[in-house]
Amino acid sequence: NKFKYIKAQTIRVWLKRDSGQYWPSIYHTVSSPCSCMSYHHDSRRIFIGQDNGAVVVSEFLISEDFNKMNHVKTYPAHQNRVSDMIFSLESEWVVSTGHDKSVSWMCTQSGSMLGRHYFTAWASCLQYDHETQHAFVGDYSGQITLLKLEKQTYSTITTLKGHEGSVGALWWDPIQRLLFSGASDHSVIMWDIGGRKGRTLLLQGHHERVQALRYLQLTRQLVTCSADGGIAVWNMDTQREEAPQWLDSDSCQKCEQPFFWNIKQMWDTKTLGLRQHHCRKCGKAVCGKCSSKRSTFPVMGFEFPVRICDACFETIKEEDRTPLATFHEGKHNIAHMDMDPSRGLMVTCGSDRIVKVNNSPLIPDNLCVFRPCQTNLLKQIQLVMLELHSGHEIGISTILNSKHYKNRNWFSQFMDHV
Fold it and tell me: How many domains does the chain contain in total?
């Protein structure tokens, strides 16, 4: 048991050998289980978040034999598990979120706390715009909060509401100014921050919670991964339409039959109330009889058949059903994913204690599989691929072991501060 406990709180560097297999080159233990990691390539600094709330800042100095790792300092950043973190070399800040329902930002030069903001739910994921110092924080209530961070102060810009489950992953593209979010409601949302029109796109193609995503800016493709091992590649370089807002009504907006809570109309017409449904294409409230059809509608993000009212079904042509996404099988529960688009490499880590290095972000043909630990089922593992000047490929992984896993006007408010 002691041996397993130690292995659950280690930082390991995996070196790719001549045989093509990865073997651990550095094996470093920390005081408590690791929960997240941020690595800066140029400065070779690693920031490790832990279950006890401490953020350990380690300076990673690799010698020719790849076996050296020096600890720099420890920050008392949170009072509970650290869920995500990002290091900004430009401002010398490390921004982190935790299960103490807060986001904090600290100065890496002085080691002092610069600010903290509390939420009503666990903060689960984080993205940061290094140029404008805006932070995007997803939480377990399904909301995404936009904050403008300053030294010793901050301002709350707005809150993005669109998910019906906890937000599990965020990705910010500073070039096109697009924010992507994935959640436990199996959906992905694209928030067009730079468009200044409050445009959002809903993407539905997963059967389980979305836990990792990455936007490839050059090819305009979004790669998303879910807990059941599903990998979706979305074509974002095409004209897409916003899914309509669902309308409220006391009776079917097609046949005018009352819904079951409309007691007055049920009494007047001497009919039984019906169950309310919604057409995914027009958003109208309809009964089951008026929405008996099912169809895909990829232009609105529906890659699987969804409920369509009979009237809208007649307007959908066969070419409208052409898929705008491809789906692949990761063959394990994907908890984290990272990519190197320049070399066509994808790394996925799963709760099955397996790390997979794939040679293509689109069709994952496995190049290398290794088992980084022998602990009990992990909640999340994180690995980042690095390319050193010598040409060697290094994988830096943190082993996580935790008991817990547990509006349309946003754009104008945000752009006023950008």
Answer: 2
